[in-house]
Amino acid sequence: MVAKLLFVISESIRTALIKQLNRELESAYVYLAMSAWCSREEFNGAAHWFRLQYDEEQTHGTKLFDYLIDQGAPVGLLPVGAPPEEFDSLVEVFEASLAHERSMTEHLNDLSDLALQERDHATYNLLQWFVTEQVEEESTVGEIIAKLRLVGTDGYGVLMVDNELGTRTLSAAA
Ligand code: FEO
Fold it and tell me: 68 with 123: CB under 8 angstroms?
């Protein structure tokens, strides 16, 4: 049997990356629950949109997992909590999504700070991919919220936005 070389990232970075991996999987779960709510309420376009968001977040978790494995670091996976599943309206679902993404951005900024403090440039580089992704995610969700606020309770308007959400395809970058 070939013994693994000692991994090179610090224990604090390893622990923080495993926690972030867990947050990405929690995000996936959050979006799966949102997709379920949208399906139940017959917002089928939004259900599709959140289902793809679920796929993206799983990819993010896997990206961190692969990095930890490439670094030879032990990966102890953490439990994933149950997400909220009740919402009052479609716009509220997207507002919850934006609040969630903003908290993810804060965590990624904290993680980037830690990587810089430790002069861990490999981890810092990896994290910058996530930081850039957050800008796109927050912007996209912000635009959807703006459209939904614009149409308000106008059923036809909401239907138009929902139809548009149904045309989303999974981005190659995710
Ligand atoms: Fe991977 Fe949307 O945070």
Answer: no
Model pTM? Answer: 0.93
Residue 5 lies in a domain: no
Nearest CA to ligand 1 atom 2: 101
Contact 94, 144 (CB under 8 A): yes
| CATH assignment of the domain containing 104 | 1.20.1260.10
The residue segments making up the domain with residue 33 are 11-76+85-165
Q: State the total domains in the chain.
A: 1
Is 4 within a domain?
no
Distance (Å) from CA 82 to ligand 1 centroid: 17
User: For residue 36, how far is its CA from the centre of ligand 1 (angstroms)?
Assistant: 19
User: Residue 29: which residues within 8 A CB-CB, separation 6 or more?
Assistant: 54, 80, 81, 82, 83
* CB 142 within 8 Å of CB 125: no
Check pocket membership of 60 for ligand 1, CB cut-off 6 A: yes
* pLDDT tens, position by position, 128-144: 999 999 999 999 999 99
